[in-house]
Amino acid sequence: xxxxxxxxxxxxxxxxxxxxxxxxxxxxxxxxxxxxxxxFRDISSLIVITLTWVAAxxxxxxxxxxxxxxxxxxxxxxxxxxLMMAALGGCWxxxxxxxxxxxxxxxxxxxxxxxxxxxxxxxxxNQLPWYSTNxxxxxGCQWAWCLGLTVLSVYFYxxxxxxx
Length: 164
Hints:
76% helix; mainly alpha; globular
């Protein structure tokens, strides 16, 4: 069937989004069952923060697919960038405990993972609702990443795969 080129990209994003939501649901259910951390005490905040994070991560995945020439290149690039963002964004160790130089602190706070960790930490540790100022800033930064990566994905997809 003839479909538009943008529909292909949108379909890929929705597939990644649904798989991401499924993964997060399994992760949270298992984590709550095993560790009883109270993830579900504020379900609305959990849903809003998770939808935002999955959208940003999905846009990142589609961006990598659009800029890569092969699946092997995408996998290698993804592994490298995800590990770097996880380390810089506070997924491996809490950045609040670190005394970082100003430049490195700025780099760390510019990652998607930093803002995801900020949202989840605010919800879990500080019991902030999704509409608190700190959480809204974290959500806004993630949506900015999502929008920026989506625009770049469309550009690179058209440049790399839509010739002719």
